[in-house]
Specification:
33% of the residues lie in helices and 26% in strands. It binds adenosine-5'-triphosphate. Adenosine-5'-triphosphate (ATP) binds next to helix 1.
Length: 238
């Protein structure tokens, strides 16, 4: 994959005490695509995304954003929703967004723009605590979009959503590349990912086992099982 990459990691690692949660992972996320990071529970997906989003410090390797070494200033162009969105339950969607626009020093009109993008313009006086899970996710994404990121990181975005919520989120995510936003998301729901992503990376035991464009005719589940089982066998043989 030699096209322009908005993000590259070069053998990035994160060790907690003596165990490597992420072990020399080299990701290549092409600009203008949706990249799906797949892996079983505990594979290292969240840890990897947290390093890219500046929430955890790598213990090894390097990261490149937009062709330059990753630095704190890269975060001005990286939006992230990792784990559940941090919302004020007693505030409306607009009020939640207002807190963030003030903190970021952004004009208030951004609020209307992002509400429109995530289709939450009509929630009026409803407080976030009373939102459905799908609405909370979309408000979390709206917050991440406020600063107009070029890369949006979403950790398990469809987790816990009902089929309608999943469908709405899928359409939203698919609309991002056309708006100049590259998406890097993690998931273990293969059938959902299959319909959203352009490229996939399969991670297990902290290592990237496979990376490439998703072949729409290929059986993703079979590929996933093969890659993860082979890595389990290698781990068992050690
Ligand atoms: N702060 C921490 N301290 C010690 N170990 C950690 C810490 N955070 C994660 N780990 C370990 O790192 C490994 C990878 O965890 P991580 O949450 O990144 O996986 P994941 O692929 O996101 O899993 P899931 O799909 O279950 O969320 C796990 O073995 C986990 O126990």
């Amino acid at each position: 994959m030699n096209e322009t990459c908005i993000l590259r990691t070069d053998r990035i690692s994160k060790r907690f005490k003596h165990a490597a949660a992420v072990d020399e992972v080299s990701l290549a996320v092409r600009e203008g695509t949706v990249y799906g990071l797949l892996g079983p529970n505990g594979a290292g997906k969240t840890t990897l995304l947290k390093m890219i989003a500046g929430l955890l410090r790598p213990t090894g390797g390097a990261m490149w954003f937009d062709g330059k070494p990753w630095s704190r200033s890269s975060l001005e162009q990286i939006g992230a929703l990792i784990e559940s969105p941090a919302l004020y339950g007693n505030l409306t969607a607009r009020e939640n967004l207002n807190v963030h626009t003030m903190m970021l020093g952004l004009p208030e009109r951004r609020i209307d723009e992002v509400l429109e993008t995530v289709d939450l313009t009509d929630t009026g006086k409803k407080r976030a605590a009373h939102f459905s899970l799908g609405m909370k996710q979309r408000l979390g994404i709206a917050i991440a979009l406020l600063k107009r990121p070029r890369l949006l990181i979403l950790d398990e975005p469809t987790n816990g959503l009902d089929p309608l919520g999943i469908q709405e989120l899928r359409e939203l995510i698919r609309s991002f590349p056309a708006q100049g936003i590259t998406v890097l998301l993690s998931s273990h729901a293969l059938n959902e990912v299959e319909q959203i992503v352009d490229d996939i990376g399969i991670i297990s035991g902290g290592k990237l086992r496979y990376q490439g464009p998703l072949d729409k005719n290929a059986d993703l589940e079979a590929l996933f099982m093969e890659v993860v089982r082979a890595s389990d066998r290698r781990a068992g043989a050690r």
